[in-house]
User: Fold this.
Amino acid sequence: MPDAALSPSPSPAGGRGEHGEPLARLDGIDRRLIVATQGGLPLVPRPYHALAEQLGLSAEEVMARLRRLLESGVVRRIGAVPNHYALGYTANGMSVWDVPDERIDALGEAVGKLPFVTHCYHRPRALPLWPYNLFAMVHGKSRDEVEAQVKQIAALLGADCRAHDVLFSSRILKKTGLRIGG
Amino acid sequence: MDEVDRNIVNVLQGGFPICDEPYLAVAEPLGLTEAELIARLQRLLETKTLTRFGPMFQVERMGGAFVLAALAVPQADYERVAEQVNALPEVAHNYRREHALNMWFVLATETLEGIPAAIDRIERATGLKVYAFPKLKEYFVGMKLHA
Assistant:
């Protein structure tokens, strides 16, 4: 990838993210490491050494930087991302719920702990079209399974659920993911 | 995909070590050699059973933003609007869903300012109002799909 697009653009020192949280400080080397690994980790016995060679760094520095990126949350984790469809999880429903704002944090934490919920967020309503403030993505092997899972969420929420809906995806229009600096 | 592949997918969703020979460290408890694990990972990626293997980045921690957004697209205009939305590099995923809001996409940008700019471009290109649903709080994000 062309190097010109990468450094020098370190994160602004002391910058704040969208919710006011302090940002991790990245330097040009961190950004090169991110660009080098966003396509995946090398499938060789010593992958961090291979990255080090590619970037002109020592393997110790690559590993130390990756550990720091993990600690600061820039890297959520290192691991495998399965294709839901290939694992047979062909039904994915975005379940959405209207729950009282003052109770949403406790309810969201509880819903997020359910084993079939892969993402769970508090998001704003858009009234009158959209009364829902709690979003929980549910993956199942059939629409019936997803609907049964949604019933479990409804049971958990009880009287706190004022309205809900499930939006099934009927078509993938695009799926690329984020690419930086290339 | 056999039992060994399923084990690999289940175990490696949880994380991967940072050490000199991480494949070796993971292969042993799975009862595999390092070379077998690497060959199987290669095949799982080639057959698209895995979409990725490596670090997962949180763009928000780097100063960027991810925002879920939706459009209510008239059926007759659906293909045209899908093309216009997909043409933006900031659109990372886009799904058709069955609701009055029938097109749901994720905008991913390297800066916070990139989000309103992308929304503005979509509104001008499509003539439709973009409903943005930025996350106010994250309760859980993770893959725990059992292979």
